[in-house]
Amino acid sequence: MSAVGLDTRLTDEHHESLRLWLRLLTCTHLIETQVRKGLAAQFKTTLPRFDLMAQLERTPEGLQMGELSRRMLVTGGNVTGIVDQLERSGLIVRTEDPADRRAYLVKLTKEGRRLFAQMATEHESWIVKLLSGIPKREQRTLQESLARLRSQLTRIPS
Amino acid sequence: MSAVGLDTRLTDEHHESLRLWLRLLTCTHLIETQVRKGLAAQFKTTLPRFDLMAQLERTPEGLQMGELSRRMLVTGGNVTGIVDQLERSGLIVRTEDPADRRAYLVKLTKEGRRLFAQMATEHESWIVKLLSGIPKREQRTLQESLARLRSQLTRIPS
Fold it and tell me: Does any domain span residue B83?
């Protein structure tokens, strides 16, 4: 193969990776936009608040602030600000961490769990609808490719 | 099939869609985190700024503010604030829109184009590396599935 041929091939490969990333980003962005709209319209809430409550729902024993920030899947939210708002609304509480007196844990209240369950049900139905155009078999293939990508990405030193 | 069987199947299907969405979100988030780190370390800039410059680079004739906001792929950035910062750094300019006297267009300056080209080259090499664990053939399958998802998502009325 000529040097020019190799060069072209490398460039194409680069462009393919970039195109894949842009497509991943675009799909995520389009779905996020719909979810943001649904949360605003039906629950007068935001995606970062929903995401934060989702993280707490998975850990009933509560999370320290640092760990909570690390687990958030959507960016752009100010975690301390969101915690303050949700606490004022009675949806979460701060309690002393029994394992670390200098830190506190954030947990959902009973009312927080109740509201989150409602939001989660709606959210799930939006996602099902948004992904409904992809045949189930293809969803499974996508799932597997993304699982592989994910496991590779989590091995990258940060 | 019994009613219980149907119910279980529907629930599984729901969970599968949700799992796929969370995986998509997680992969996007992990890649974004690496890109944010690279942009901060090597160019002392942010992802929303890079995204904004990328949108302008694709439209040398310039974009109105509303259109620019719509095209942004990453959320959480305040577009007017970013435009102000980039203008102060001499990387973009605001000019009168010849087609609409009440509006202005935002464009990259020559310096902005030069810096963006450098950032884009680096950015592409990060993406190639981040996706390198997925075999090329699988990348192509992913690409096609995401293309289908994207075309379905853009048909949803907003």
Answer: yes
What is the C-alpha separation between A57 and B144, in angstroms, rounded?
34
CB contact under 8 A, B128 and A154: no
**Within a domain: residue A58?**
yes
> Is B134 in the A-facing interface, judged by CB distances under 8 Å?
yes
CATH code for the domain in which residue B69 is found: 1.10.10.10
ipTM of the complex: 0.84
Residue A2 lies in a domain: no
Q: Where are the beta strands (DSSP E) in B9-145?
A: 63-64, 92-97, 100-108
Query: Phi first, then psi: what are they for B60, rounded to 5°?
Result: -60, -25
Domain extent, residue B110, equals: 47-153
Q: Does A18 touch chain B (CB under 8 A)?
A: yes
User: Would you write out chain B's pLDDT as a tens digit for each of its 158 residues?
Assistant: 344 444 455 566 668 899 999 999 999 989 999 999 999 999 999 999 999 999 999 999 999 999 999 888 776 668 999 999 999 999 999 999 888 888 899 999 999 999 999 999 999 999 999 998 888 888 888 888 898 888 888 876 54
Structural domain count of chain A: 1
Contact A21 B154 (CB under 8 A): no
From CA A72, how far away is CA A49, in angstroms rounded? 10
Which residues of chain B make contact with A125, given a CB cutoff of 8 A? Answer: 14
List of chain A residues whose C-beta atoms are within 8 Å of the C-beta of residue B142: 20, 142, 145-146, 149
